[in-house]
Amino acid sequence: MSNRLYQLGEAAAEAFLLHSGEIQYWVNDSDYVALSGKNIIVGASELLIAMNRKEAVCRHFSLVALPDAQYSHIPADKLASFIKTYAVGFSVAHHIAQTITKLHSVLSEKMNRLHETERSLRDLSITYVEIVGLLENESRSRHFPWLFSMVEKARNSSAYNFGLAFTSVSKEKKIDISAENLARYKQIYPAGSIICKEGGKGSDMFILMDGKIEVRIKSNPIDFIVKKGTIIGEMGLILGTPRTATLRALEDVHVVRIGSGDMVSIFQNDPATFFNMVSSLAFREKDNCEKINEYSDMVKRMAFGKEEESLRQVHEYSQELAGLVRELEGHCERLPGEEWLEQIRDHIRRKSSALLADAGIMTGNTYVGASPKEHVDIMEKPSGGGQAVHTSVPEIDWF
């Protein structure tokens, strides 16, 4: 008989050492991933988050031990002591990374079940949040009143608030990139250089210190990485899996570059940095569980025939995204020669044009290049007929 070790939503108090057999992580009543092995620590993610935040946290899934599983309990204080040992810390990181990989498969399956309207809602809102994030990051250093105003207005939009569910920002402690013992790992990539290539071996991880990195998948520009302290590539380093994206420096990029052979040295000289690397995976696991539940809710909404409501949301979010694009275009015309602004404009043109065109096919409205023309009944079928083509890339962690 299976044994439930803990329940989704309850306070995290202990981890478990799985001596043998199989356990299952249940994200909700229908979605789970299984993990098996010998002498591996499971159920540690929430405790790592609690140690990182220095506050109690709740479980983001239920843990069930199958009948053949043999395990023992690890109290939270003992885990905190064990994690200070490199072998234990790296083992915990490895098994959390394995769980994340399995969660990716569940997430992809959910995304594939969405209708075009729900996909459009997701992609429009995610793109909106990404654009606002880029503008918000620039506002911290440029201090333009019009930029602050633009960001504040955008953060109050429906598209932004809907998109936050799919682009949640973990409240994790960032790695101190100014630490002296990381100095020897610092590296500069000149503007235009390739940091790593899609399909290449994941033998390094990076911590962004300064600069702007472009992410490309199958040669297509997908996103920027600009936030200092962002950890990139730890999944590939820990699991030894190939890169799933190409990173290119858009300007001189300063990073801390850590290879697999450096991990022991970093642990010995800076255990706090090592702990933050491990706990970053726990935050990623939590975020993926939340995304799976968000997509599950969208699939359920489809099943209850709420197509009309979804189309009205597509229309609303398209208007908001198109308005943000036009506003940014206006500032580019008013401030010619601002390279950072032109980069963001070019980026959002690539990100938004296909999304808005597809949304226009669904709703019978025009969103690109001018104010959306009003449509008496947005449920009217497009005159051209047919389904919109889904052209966006699934929003799953790259590395």
What does this structure look like?
By secondary structure, the chain is α+β, with helices and mostly antiparallel strands. It has three domains: 3-111, Jelly Rolls; 115-168 and 285-353; 180-269, Jelly Rolls (Sandwich), CATH 2.60.120.10. The protein is 47% helix and 18% strand. Strand 11 and strand 12 (220-225) form a beta hairpin. The longest helix has 33 residues, at 271-303. It is globular and about 65 Å long.
Please name the defining characteristics of this protein.
single chain; 399 residues; alpha+beta; Jelly Rolls; 3 domains; 11 helices; 15 strands; 47% helix; globular; disordered C terminus
Q: Which strands sit side by side, in order, in the main sheet? A: 1-6-3-4
β-sheet strand percentage: 15-25%
Radius of gyration: 23 Å
Number of domains: 3
Mean pLDDT: 83
In helices, the fraction of residues equals 40-55%
Distance between the termini: 37 Å
What best-fitting shape do the alpha-carbon axes yield? Answer: globular
Contiguous uncertain segments of 5+ residues: 369-399
Number of helices: 11
| Content-based structural category | alpha+beta
Major beta sheet, specifics? 4 strands, antiparallel
The number of E-state strands comes to 15
Instruction: Write the element-wise H/E pattern from the N-terminal end onward.
Output: EEEEEHEEHHHHHEEEEEEHEEHHHH
